[in-house]
Write a structure and sequence with these properties.
275 residues; alpha/beta; D-Maltodextrin-Binding Protein, domain 2; Alpha-Beta Plaits; six-stranded mixed beta sheet; five-stranded mixed beta sheet
């Protein structure tokens, strides 16, 4: 069993919720300021595993994290989805008209923008982390300041939820990936999903041909994301997620793609969490 996990953010953050639900609650959690710090903890062998948010159903892909996984030579060994519910919270015995400022992560503020149009007296302030704001409000007894964070953050830092589920789109899901340092032994038995990265010759129809191979090999494409190749202007790498019923179909596809691409890399095979 994994002993330690690195997360971006502090206890009460959505990454912390994933660590509790994906693993057992006894897992030691290392809190990190940024995604880069999270990966560094893993690469420097201070933790066994890390959790990275990779995409959101409203905001789309978290592009830098694709690059981090690739350049750090990490291996995706699992995935997890959570329904992100944003709650407005503050110190007890206050209502929404007592709140003069609300601090939170820019993404949370964006996802709750419509709610705050009804309360023009509230100033919205960007912060690094949702749970970190909740902690700071409690530690410094900041009256008149609200946080947008998870229900767990409200419980940990003894804050009162003034309004629940204030995000504009009520079903707001984030996908997280579980990553480890690369190892040949990380192959997940009975895996039925994979993340791969490939580069192609810059010629007409090259991507369409690859997609046809995936289809012919009975692979279902669930995600495709292009990223510029920094050292080669106007050339792109493609990050693709596929699901499959038979691992042999995936192996066959990779064998063919090895011949068709200028570079291919399997970022990880794991269990599909969306079944």
């Amino acid at each position: 069993m994994h002993k330690t996990v690195a997360i971006q953010g502090i206890k009460g953050s959505f990454h912390h919720i994933v660590s509790q639900q994906y693993f057992d609650n006894d897992m030691a959690v290392i809190e990190c300021q940024s995604f880069q710090d999270t990966v560094s903890e893993l690469l420097e062998h201070r933790v066994d595993i890390a959790i990275l948010a990779i995409e959101n159903s409203i905001a789309g892909s978290i592009i830098p994290n694709y690059a981090l996984i690739d350049t750090s030579n990490l291996q995706v060994v699992g995935e997890y989805y959570i329904d992100v519910q944003h709650h407005l919270m503050a110190l007890p015995n206050q209502n929404i008209y007592d709140i003069k400022e609300v601090h939170s992560h820019p993404m949370a503020l964006l996802q709750c923008a419509a709610f705050f149009k009804e309360y023009p007296h509230i100033k919205l302030v960007e912060a690094k982390d949702t749970a970190d704001v909740a902690k700071e409000i409690q530690e410094n007894k900041r009256l008149g300041i609200g946080a947008i964070a998870s229900r767990l953050a409200a419980e940990i830092f003894n804050l009162n939820i003034i309004n629940q589920s204030i995000q504009t789109i009520k079903h707001n899901e984030t996908r997280f990936v579980i990553v480890q340092r690369y190892s040949e032994e990380n192959h997940i038995k009975d895996s039925d999903k994979a993340s791969i990265k490939f580069e192609l010759e810059h010629k007409r129809g090259s991507l369409a041909t690859v997609l046809n191979v995936l289809s012919d090999c009975k692979l279902n494409l669930t995600k495709i994301q292009s990223l510029p190749i920094i050292e080669t202007p106007w050339k792109y790498a493609f990050f693709v997620d596929v699901t499959f019923a038979d691992y042999e179909d995936f192996e066959k596809a990779i064998t063919i793609l090895n011949l068709m691409t200028t570079q291919i890399k399997v970022l990880g095979t794991y269990k599909n969490a969306k079944k």
